[in-house]
Amino acid sequence: MTRTDPTSISNHFPLPAVYPLIDTHTHFDAPVFDSDRQPQTQQAYVHGVRHLMLVGYLHQHFPRLYETQQAIEQMPLFESMDKANCANLYPKAHIALGLHPFYIEQHTDAHLTSMAQMIQEQRPLAIGEIGLDTYTDAMKQPEAFAKQKRFFEAQLDIAVTHKLPVMLHIRKAHAEALAIIKAHDYNAHKLGGIAHSFSGGEQEAKAFVKLGFKLGVTGQITNQNAKKLRRAIKAAVDSYGLECLVIETDCPDMTPIMCQTSDDDQLTSQSDSRLASGQSPDNEWQGADGHNRNIPANLPWVLTSLSELLNVEPAELAHQLWQNSCDALQTSWSYPT
Prior knowledge:
By secondary structure, the chain is α/β, with parallel strands linked by helices. The chain has a single domain (6-329), classed as TIM Barrel, CATH 3.20.20. Helix content is 37%, strand content 12%. The chain contains eleven helices and eight strands. The protein has helices spanning 37-46, 62-73, 109-121, 137-140, 142-162, 174-183, 188-191, 202-210, 227-240, 299-310, 314-329, and strands at residues 21-26, 49-55, 92-97, 126-133, 166-171, 194-195, 214-217, 245-247. Strands 1-2-3-4-5-6-7-8 form an eight-stranded parallel β-sheet. The radius of gyration is 18 Å and the shape is globular. It starts with 20 loop residues before the first strand and ends in an 8-residue tail after the last helix.
């Protein structure tokens, strides 16, 4: 087994206790999971994950989100690998549709129109991931960035029309994104919303929370060297309480430190490691080290590290994060007892 399978983690990292959790952001529909999606889905359930989001980023892959959701719903019942715990259930999968700013060159107005039609016919749980990204020089160019802003605003319009929460992807463009949201009709206090894999500073964290967004915390929080992120999360909690956070794996990205096999235990500091892993729309995550692929079952490590950072008992934090996730996604899922 690889270290990314929680059952194989060495005794140096004792397995976290199991609490009911919601993985608010995954790319579990990606082909990198095709060979073992069923056992990974079951492992996620065994380790507490009861709901997970399948989040879109390219129009061409939208149908795959629904196919993956259906495949999970139709998975056969069987005993857990943990013979002492017969887990004949799987997490419930939900969908978000969105056109990701990183791929702005590939998006067309026809994709926006088609996406709006899909939402009308197959209503997702959220819109995402959407936003602004100036990570590369090409994406900073005026024409490219203007198109990003236009698509961001158009998808906020769709969210308002259908009364759906949004999942934000903001990388190196927090001030610009905040300005657009403040000027828009979208109201996260009413519609919910998540600043996915938050990567800004303390003031930016508080600004998004003030607007009604929850901050999405990934496996990067397990990296003691992610000092900017850890300060930002603490500052937001100090100002707004635990109610401002949700957790996510962003799998197959953002593998927690203790679940990596590489000697280089640096997590990418970006909110999306596709660039670093060589991902393209036709070669999704295939350039990444398979041993460091993140999986939904790794979510408890995010909870544990966040609990330690905030000095809050894991059981209390898990319960609060469940409520926060429901609030952000405008759902009313009962907390399992």
